[in-house]
Amino acid sequence: MDRKILLENIDIPGIQSFETFRSCGGYLAVEKALKTMAPDEITEEVKKSGLKGRGGAGFPAGMKWSFIDKKVDKPRYLICNADESEPGTFKDRYLMEKIPHLLIEGMICACYALGANTGYIYVRGEYKYIIGILNKAVREAYEAGFLGENILGTKFKLDIVVHSGAGAYICGEETALIESLEGKRGNPRIKPPFPALVGLYGSPTVVNNVETLANIGYIVNNGGEKYTQIGLGRSTGTKLISACGNINKPGVYEIELGVSVRDFIYSDQYCGGIKNNKELKAVIAGGSSVPILPKDLILKTASGEDRLMTYESLSDGGFVSGTMLGSGGFIVYDEDACIVRNTWNLTRFYHHESCGQCSPCREGTGWMENVLHRLENGEGRSKDIDLLVSIAAKIEGKTICPLGDASAWPVASAIRHFRHEFEFHVQHPEIVKNVNHGSLAKYVG
Amino acid sequence: MLGKRINHSLHQKQNIVVCFSGPTLEKVLKIISRYPEGKQKSAIIPVLHIAQEEFGGYLNVDTMDYVAGLLGIEPIEVYEVATFYSQYYLDPVGKYVIETCRTGPCAICGGEAIQSYLEKKLGIKTGESTPDGLFTLKTVECLGACGYAPVMQINTEFYEFLTPQKIDKIINTLTKKSEEEKAENSKWTEKFF
Amino acid sequence: MLKVTIDNQTIEVEEGTTILQAARLIGGAIVPPAMCYYSKLKDSGGKCRTCLVKVAQGSSRDPRPMPKLVASCRTPVMDGMVVQNITSPEVIETRKAIVEFLLINHPLDCPVCDQAGECDLQNLSYQNGNEETRFEEAKRTFDVIDIGDNVQLHMNRCILCYRCVYTANQLTDKRVHGILYRGDVSEISTYIQTDISNDFSGNIIDVCPVGALTDKTFRFKNRVWFLKPMNASRSCTKCSGKVTAWMRGNEIYRVTGRKDQYGEVEEFICNECRFEKKAVSDWTIESPRNIKRASVISQNHYTRLKNPSVILPLEEKMGKSPYGETKSINDKQS
Predict the structure, then answer these.
(1) Cβ–Cβ below 8 Å for A367 and C75
(2) Neighbour tally for C239: CB within 10 Å
(3) Among A313, A234, A239, residue whose Cα is nearest residue A270
(4) Strand order in the sheet with B135-140
(5) Looking at beta carbons, which residues of chain B come within 8 Å of C176?
(6) Which end of chain B offers a freer environment for a tag, N or C, measured as fewer CB atoms within 10 Å?
(7) Which of C333, B89, C3 is CA-nearest to residue A166?
(8) B86-138: pLDDT as tens digits
């Protein structure tokens, strides 16, 4: 189970450049698409492939494309969401840095399928050097005739603009991203209407993640059917997993969906086990907003089966005993990790990144941070734990965008699975005051 | 953070003349022209990045009003955007803004120790600048480089797998380099082409 | 026409009508409260989350329920939609939660707030709030900034409904204030020292659901419940000149737009009418405004209750007065 789609050619020297990329079979998908396929055929193939959005929500990409309103007389837009900001996630940066033309090839095919003549790549502002890499790649593609007017002698015309963010996690939410691209504050829009009908500049718009678009070339070349043969069941294809935390080999790995979590953590092909020979304590499997799972539940499902790296297996058991594949940000915690401190840390992140537009998130994230801060600093009381559960429940599902849920899930899951650590913080204020991050394992059973 | 008093005092216009140099202006206008007719406001984020870099490392009222003029929008629309995004600085900063990532994955890999080390090394607290105006120390939330933790950025250049030794080296190099101009190829104006 | 059922009451509405608008057409207790939505301001709504309702059936074509509660002010009605507002415990529970969120950093300085007595947040808390707070931290406070001679900004009281921003955008040529910063430190501000002043800027006071924007020319002059709101008019070149003059004796203390039962002005008025015309001789005083019986402003202004011994406050809040028709003192006089 280690077939690759995206990173197959990653080690070829010079693959960053157009020439090398092209000589390795790059842009063949564009030729095939523009010369032999009708736009809707491509959408059909993507639908057939079962490719799920790789940004975190996992919405089927082909379905998203088919929602686009092709009847209105307005320009259509494709936006590539490269505002990678979910803690634990750094796969898109890797892809764009190492093999930028894979993204551009996918975007051209996608734009052709959607009938879009302009594509935007919205890159987070901190990835300044990636913006340089992408602009160079875009320039090369223009020079080679893959962008601009009459691409490959057809009537199809496409411009790609690389756009920059400026430090706002919320702009990874597709409607906030559109607002930001329009030059406004990154406040998510109230849906409906969805971007497929009213998106950028009021026009039909599709927003796809970098990795999603990078898969399109393969699907065009080989057909959706072939894509489904990779992966496991409904989790088709491969997934980039960015592994970090207390492991021996942090980095970006392309896995065929279906690898077992145990293999992913312990095999030398991937994470290479826990650093310093420590014990695994917990994992956040899909970016910081998905529920944290303790060792026993991340390795095996509640029913005792091996947990696999697939959308379905990771979410087995719902939020009671499962989690989500999310964006593929795989954060591993060793035995020394303090769950309370970690939860406080992540909550502070969401508090900092809340746009402030809707009341539950604006007020609730800061409140949770306050409560967690006092727990972590030995000033908490036992009722604080239930207070946190209650605040999280009151944010979840009540906000305009998923940031509310993203802030509530880590808190709710940490208390669900590690309540004893929170209680320890309440019962032993003198210890938690003096003992910093980690090493609490000595005290907590 | 706790029981907070928010001190967003009003800013002053200094009535200084702000204007991009010829070549930079040409690039800025080119960036603006990439967006559809009538949607020039879209260029605000890239243009503010360049303006911040060109005009002293932060965005003062005069700079923002100039950008508003270039884009044909009201100044308040620029203030709204500039105050929303964390990469824009509204008050003067040092020549090098050091921002250490403090979010989860970096924190469990020693990010907090790195920040303490930087404070000690530079002799300033987070949020302060060195008296010579060379360094400003800040923290930042997730930089999307969690596999290379701990991480910091200095004027949007990433520094990864940080150790105290590495920090010593970086700070020393920058202290020496401060006499020279920043390398031309790391500028925002270059990144957009 | 689309058929929609809200809390078991069915109505037919035109396409494009939102759930909240449909509820207002039905009227009564089933109308969701709205802190940020304002029917006269385009794009308003969706932010405060007080109007969240449950859609138990999406439409007759697709009868599945919607997975989350939806903002009734921004969700269009579908044919055959079934909505639960006060009949859903989940909605009531959520509304309580929203009130709690809105109040944790609110100063609760009603005793010194000019908005007290006509404050949407006060009413909302009274109807949906908890008696106790679970928030023990110090509240967030903002430095006071001066936005001119006409309007007083109390940022601490603001719930960030954005109405004043939409008002400035949609009513005036040049907006000089906006929402700055982000998250829970975002605030209404001008960023630089400048006055919010143009012919229609005073309307930001009327649209403000709380005491964040109040009339400086009325500041600390009187409590609203001591005043009698009267319909008044004058011929004005800038606006309709149709206002509410808030009187005590023969003095006009304050001029505002005429607000309907949902607290929205019928017509926006100009600053000249609002701030400069305070003499009775400036106006033709027409008739008393109809004030909701439940409002504190109606206190001492109404007589001839048919059955004063019956006290049924709950039913009264539900919109059905047990007292029958009420008449005002002023009616008798006129």
Answers:
(1) no
(2) 20
(3) A239
(4) B135-140, B96-101, B152-154, B157-159
(5) 74, 76
(6) N
(7) B89
(8) 999 999 999 999 999 999 999 999 999 999 999 999 999 999 999 999 999 99
Does residue A2 fall inside a structural domain?
A: no
How far is residue A392's CA from residue A405's CA, in Å, rounded to a whole number? 8
Which residues have C-beta within 8 Å of that of residue B173, sequence separation ≥ 6?
A: none
All residues of chain C having their beta carbon less than 8 Å from the beta carbon of residue A355 are 182-183
Angle CA A394–A395–A400, to nearest 5: 135
- Three-state DSSP class for residue C134: coil
Find chains touching chain B: ≥3 CB pairs under 8 Å: A, C
Which parts of C130-212 are beta strand (E)? 141-142, 151-153, 178-180, 187-189
Residue A364 and residue A325 share a domain:
no
Domains annotated on chain C, with CATH: 2-101 (3.10.20.740), 110-131+139-215 (3.30.70.20), 223-334 (no CATH)
List the subunits that have 3+ CB pairs under 8 angstroms with A. B, C
**Residue B6's pLDDT is what?**
84
**Residue A151: CATH number of its domain:** 3.40.50.11540
Q: What residues of chain C lie within 8 A of the CB of B8, using their CB?
A: 142-143, 180-181, 185, 187, 189
Are residue A26 and residue A171 in the same domain, yes or no?
yes
* Burial class of A430 by CB neighbour count within 10 A (0 to 12, 13 to 18, 19+): exposed
Cβ contacts below 8 Å, chain A against chain B, sum to: 170
Contact B6 C175 (CB under 8 A): no
Distance CA(B121)–CA(C304), nearest Å, equals: 80
Number of A–C residue contacts, CB under 8 Å: 87
Residue A369 is part of which domain span? 339-444
* Closest listed residue to residue B154, CA positions, set B95, B91, B82, B92: B95
Residues C182 and C153: their CA atoms lie apart, in Å, by 18
User: Could you report the per-residue pLDDT of C298-333, keeping only the tens digit for each?
Assistant: 876 654 444 444 444 544 555 554 444 444 444 444
Neighbours of C11 (CB within 10 A): 17
- Does residue A395 sit in the same domain as residue A415? yes
Which of A164, A196, A228 finishes a domain? A228
Asked if residue A11 is part of any domain, the answer here is no
| pLDDT tens-digit readout, A323-350 | 999 999 999 999 989 999 999 999 999 9
Examine the fold and report which residue of A309, A334, A359 is the final residue of a domain before the chain moves on. A334
- Answer whether B80 sits within 8 Å of C176, measured CB to CB: no
What pLDDT, on a 0 to 100 scale, did the predictor assign at position A430?
Answer: 87
- CATH label of the domain that carries residue A382: 1.20.1440.230
CA A287 to CA A307: how far, in whole Å?
17
Confidence (pTM): 0.93
A143 in a domain, yes or no? yes
Residues A297 and A350 in one domain: no
Task: Please indicate, yes or no, whether residues A405 and A418 belong to a single structural domain of this protein.
Answer: yes
Contact across the interface for A360 and C135, Cβ inside 8 Å = no
CB A169 within 8 A of CB A353: yes
ipTM field: 0.94
Residue A321 vs residues A263, A279, A317, A396, C20: alpha-carbon distances, Å: 20, 21, 5, 18, 38
| Centroid of chain to Cα C277 | 24
Closest of C95, C57, C100, C97 to residue C77, by C-alpha: C57
Note the pLDDT tens digit of each residue in C202-248.
999 999 999 999 999 999 999 999 999 999 999 999 999 999 999 99
Residue A138 located in a structural domain: yes
C143–chain B Cβ distance below 8 A for any pair: yes
Number of Cβ within 10 Å of residue B142's Cβ equals 30
Residue A388 touches chain C, beta carbons under 8 Å: no
Query: What is the CATH classification number for the domain harbouring A268?
Result: 3.10.20.600
Inter-chain touch B8–C143, beta carbons under 8 Å: yes
Beta bridge partners of B89: none
Query: Which residue does chain B place closest to A368, by CA atoms?
Result: B2
